[in-house]
Amino acid sequence: MDLSATLATFLGGLGLFLTGVTGLSVATRRLTGPRLRRIVAAGVSSPARAALAGLGAGLLTQSTVAVTAATGGLVAAGVVTLRQALPLLSWTNIGTTGVALLATLDVRSAAFVLLGFGAVLPFFGLDLRGRLAPLLALLLALGMQLLGASLMKAGLEPLRDSAVLADLLSGHASVAPFLLGTAIACVAASGSAANVLAIALAVSGVLDLGHAALVVAGGSAGSGVAQLLSARGTDADVRRTARYQGAWKIAGAALITVLLVLEGLGAPLLLALAQAASDDPAGRLAVLIPLFPLVVALAAWPFGRAAAAWLERSVPEAPEADLARPRYLADAALRDPATALDLADREQRRLLERLPLYLDSVREEAVAKPPPGMAPASASLEAAIERFLSHLQESSPEAVESAAVLRNRNATLAALREATTEVAAAAARAEGPLRGTVHGLVESLHALLEEAAEPTPELLDDRTAAMDALRRRVAVMGLDAAGHDALFRATDAFARAVWLLRRLAG
């Protein structure tokens, strides 16, 4: 046995497979885009439909990370509730076993065909000017995964008779297979990598079925850890869905390990079912790999309400979360353009109504200070409105012009928010003789913003000449360089805010 050649083949296969995992995730996001969000949003009307939607989303993307992120975004946007999303997240894990199931077959020829189409067509410019690029990238990534799995199996074949490796991985009550699966899945951030490794080890004869099953269980635990680590510092609802997915995988790994231990003590359970279904190791693993998440999903089904309550307690919502969450937008409204446009207009009115609050942080007459984090929350809401209007234009040609008007208004509101916060920041820094002047600008702008919903023409007169006169008048006060800079910034932001208000009213 040439150990160096064996190791090179296995590592090459593993590298190809992991590259394919990353490429497939990127390609499916490009290919599905808004479609994945629509699948998720449309599939949660009942637990049974949510389970089917999760299964379909998992098959489509082969990535629990992508589905969990899309679902978390929809929960954060108020399109679906956390309770509705949990069955979908559970059943996604069954759908994402698709690539591993293909790896149980002899698919080297199919891998070469996929690699050929994925690489040759774009090279010769046969990708319809880039329109087929996402699909061809998906085929290329899938081909790399399948070829990598085939090479991993071939690389491990010479190790069939290695007594040292057999003792290490399959000794009595050994935890090495579980830890191996955990490590591979953690590094790759994918349970599929551990599944394919288990197949390679079993098909090559290095591991028996029970120890290969432990590699799969360890892969679930490692993938869960990676899922938990990926959600730090994000929106509360996104962290809740990621925490559920991670905890589901880790708890599922524990449940499956307990069942395997019981089976080792003589109880005929999952391994017995797989052995009855097939005579060869690959076929048995083809039964076990989707069976494991199916068992966990069914076990978790009665605990959905309790899981949602635990997530809401363990991941508290930030005070500004409600400010960032759309109250009116819903993907279902995209089917009726008139309703969708009205809902987007309502969200924009929310943004308009909160503009005066930015100045209350520096106004002596303010009754209360603005909520913390209001500016980034408003930016998130602006982004949600922009996505909604973009999807409306894609799905309803008759609404393109009206949606474009609202998208321009959205951009104006964002610029107005920035100008208003600049005036507030300048007022907070103003000192000495400049303080009264800048705070006068704050009061004037506050009055204009209070009337922004129904402005009168005289309120929105061009203030450029007035700002120039103010700069000349204050310049004789003997300001230093910092004072002149603060004055210019405050007056420039004020004039810009008035111009944006005029644009908004026009």
Question: Can you walk me through this structure?
Answer:
The longest helix has 30 residues. α11 packs antiparallel against α12 and α21 runs parallel beside α23. The chain is elongated, with a radius of gyration of 29 Å. It starts with a helix and ends with a helix. The mean pLDDT is about 80. The chain is mainly α and about 500 residues long. The protein contains 23 helices and no strands.
Give a brief description.
By secondary structure, the protein is mainly α. It has helices at about 5-30, 35-40, 45-60, 65-75, 80-95, 100-105, 110-125, 135-155, 165-170, 175-190, 190-205, 210-230, 235-265, 270-275, 280-300, 305-315, 320-325, 335-355, 375-395, 400-430, 435-450, 465-475, 480-505. It is built from 23 helices and no strands.
Secondary structure blueprint with pairings:
Blueprint: H1 3-32, H2 34-42, H3 47-61, H4 64-76, H5 82-95, H6 98-103, H7 108-123, H8 133-156, H9 163-170, H10 176-188, H11 191-203, H12 209-229, H13 236-264, H14 270-277, H15 281-300, H16 304-314, H17 321-324, H18 337-354, H19 374-395, H20 400-429, H21 433-450, H22 464-475, H23 481-505
Low-pLDDT runs: none
Q: Level of helix content?
A: over 70%
* Backbone shape: elongated
By DSSP, the count of extended strands is: 0
User: What does the main sheet amount to?
Assistant: none
How far is the N terminus from the C terminus? Answer: 80 Å
Average pLDDT over all residues: 82
Beta content: under 5%
Spell the H/E element sequence.
HHHHHHHHHHHHHHHHHHHHHHH
Task: Tell me the number of helical segments per DSSP (H or I, 4 or more residues long).
Answer: 23
Radius of gyration: 29 Å
Structural class: mainly alpha
